[in-house]
Amino acid sequence: MNTIRRGLKRKEPGQDPEAEEYQAGLNQFQAAVRKRESIRLKLQLSSAPGVIEKELRNKINIEESVCKGTAKFISACKNECQVLEAAKNLLLGNLRVDMLKFELNKIRRGRGSPAMKQGNPSYAAVSLSDVRIPLLWRPRDHMQDTGDSRRFAIFCIARVGAQIYDTGLVHPVDRNSTDVTFPDVLLFSKMPPYFELKLELYSYLLSDNSMVTTQAKIANSFSRANKSISKAVGKRLARTMREVNGVKEEEEDKSIKHKGPKFDLLGTATLRLDDAGEDVRSHELYMEETENDHPRLPPLFGQFCARLAVMPYCRE
């Protein structure tokens, strides 16, 4: 009974108050930017193709400038929260640039022979909220609070065409977390009835104390073995291990300093008009080719919960 009580007791990981304040302020700023962008897109419903093309070119230039500045900012970051946010924004910016170029080429190809449509097209506003990703820890790790010591940073990207938005970064996520909840409300404007909203889940391994423990055990075993072999052989083995570990640490530090953390794509999901409703629903999360039990990836349940709401403009 005591074991169950210890497992059910949620442990909030300790964070620096300044880091929490920074993250909360950043989430509020990103929510305001998303709302302003959705309102601006709604006002462009009746814009001419030439105006839309000019807007896309301006967006591409802005996103490319943001990506260049973010790449330089990563090397100057000293705080873990800043590095993670910068790497997330860099990933988001590169994805936006690619999709904006795709939309621009599509408009240029279709300008010469526009399709004839009967009546006025029907558009709607689509919102995605209450996203929750359940995790599948082993009972021994979660209930007894032992074993798996990995910590992750997780966020989502939702996109429909060139409208690409991200959720706040949730970290650290460890064995005490039964699920990952995103309080963000992502609003998409000018959506046709045949829209397809793609949700992508990304994660980054912050730390893994089990790997450190394993390396320490190996080092201790070698130190004990050195007592039974000659001193020259022991020194040679120790020197080789220091050189190998030193090269690996230098490569990891160099990669983090210049490229920033690399987020792994865990799974994707596609939501359509049939998935919309007033209540939170469960949806299938399709895993990527990488194995779910990989030590770099968090254990996923294979499904997620979210609320997809649709409001046609004609009903406003």
Structural write-up:
- Helix 6 (209-228) runs antiparallel to helix 7.
- Strands 2, 3, 4, 7, 8 and 10 form a 6-stranded antiparallel beta sheet that branches. Strands 1, 5, 6, 9 and 11 form a 5-stranded antiparallel beta sheet that branches.
- This protein is globular.
- Helices cover 46% and strands 24% of the residues.
- Mean pLDDT is 75; it is low at 1-14, 112-119, 211-223 and 252-258.
- By secondary structure, the chain is an alpha+beta fold.
- Strand 2 (150-160) and strand 3 (163-166) form a beta hairpin.
What is the mean pLDDT? 75
As an assembly, this protein is single chain
Task: Quickly count the helices.
Answer: 7
Question: Would you list the SSEs in sequence order as H and E?
Answer: HHHHEHEEEEEEHHEEEE
The low-confidence parts are 1-14, 112-119, 211-223, 252-258
Summed up:
Helices cover 46% and strands 24% of the residues. It has 316 residues and is an alpha+beta fold.
How is the topology of this model organized?
Elements: H1 2-8, H2 17-42, H3 49-76, H4 80-110, E1 124-134, H5 139-143, E2 150-160, E3 163-166, E4 170-173, E5 179-182, E6 186-191, E7 197-208, H6 209-228, H7 231-259, E8 264-271, E9 281-284, E10 286-287, E11 303-312
Keywords for this entry:
11 strands, 316 residues, 6-stranded antiparallel beta sheet
